[in-house]
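Memo to structure team: turn this sequence into structure tokens by end of day. - J.P.
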Amino acid sequence: MLALLMVPAALAAQGRIIPICPVPMGDGPRPELMVRCPTPDVVRTSSDVRAGLDGRVIRYEITEQFLNRGGRLGEADYVFPLPAGAAFRDLKLSINGQLVAGETMDARQARGVYEEIVRRLRDPALVEWMGSGMLRARIFPIQPGETKTVVVSYEAMVSREGDALRIDYTVGRYGGRTAGQQTTADDGGRTTFELRYSDDEPLGVPYSPTNSLDTRDSSGTRIVRVLDGARDVTLLLPLRQATHAAISVLTSAARDDDGFAMITISPPADHSAPSPRDVTFMLDVSGSMSGQKIEQARAAGKALLATLRPQDRFRMIDFSSDVRDFRDDFVYATPGNVRHATRYLDGLQAGGGTNIAAALDEALRGQSHDDGRLPLVLFITDGMPTVGVRDPNAIAAEAGRERGGARVFTFGLGADVNASLLEQLALEGRGTAQFVRPDENVERAVGIVAERLVDPVATDL
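Reply from structure team:
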């Protein structure tokens, strides 16, 4: 079997301890009821990440230590989020050096567990993992003052972002706080991050928009260390582009299985003349987009309008509970039309629900490859559908059926975005998903998306 795999960015993440503590059922020798603790005695004291890159495959080994700082026997579940869309291989879990059989769940199975944890612990930090899979294991008992070491190792694919490989390590906030507790720099203990790869890899100087780096070479190996604490790290490894296209094949087969192959195609540095485009901008202006997010959406729209060329045409759709158009149909990107669209963006206000299905239906209606034009859709949102069709799988499947020849690119704003839905839409739409954290520079992320829309490296996939 031969397959061409296109996967979103592979994310590494810290695991979480979900403690279980006994609650007395009253006086006398009665059994105890095991319930989730609102304030855990079992806490993470350190997390050390070692990653090795070989081509487009990254091997993670995440070592975490957990301490029972309470005065009674502790018992806990270890929960490790498995990012949506990532391709995992050779997943292993050990506790104090002993391999254990963790329970692996897909995103659908894991959602109920995440919702239960959020509800019982009142911990909004786990909301960001809705749509992710899960590896879960029970850590049997931890004595008062005892430390247990948990090691998770796995392989995943690294995505390409523009002319670089992108690696994300998402720490988030440590779980287990009750409502009203403050996040501090010490939540989750000390975290370190180190990446190693061969000097022979065709990569330039590593860069991080989130952290300071220490990069050094040792015996043919490049070592990249994060200096200021690995908290939501993003690493970009520039690719040295060749003048000709390149192709690589990675195969894997277990024993007598047919196995699979991943084909990676790298475009040449020079591209042919770009095709005229029909670009549809979809902007979420629901109530959850108020404040900073609506400003980010306006900035994204303006930056993308600036990439349009005279031969391009565009539509602009904004939606909340209802769907509205800047114009009834595509218009050419004349200076006057771009000026009017910019004023239209400035006038958008956030309010109402989120009718994603209706907005996609309006955007994808009539999309085609007519007259040699390249149809592209950019979808900017921050959250979950609340009006109309709400099932993410149904929304993504319908978009796949309706898109015609259009390529769909999704752009998520904020920490509470439904990453799974946006990745499904991008997969069905043969595009990519891009995410911007609340404290991230939106202009950089918009620039990456704009580059993909201006000069696609492949069409008719």
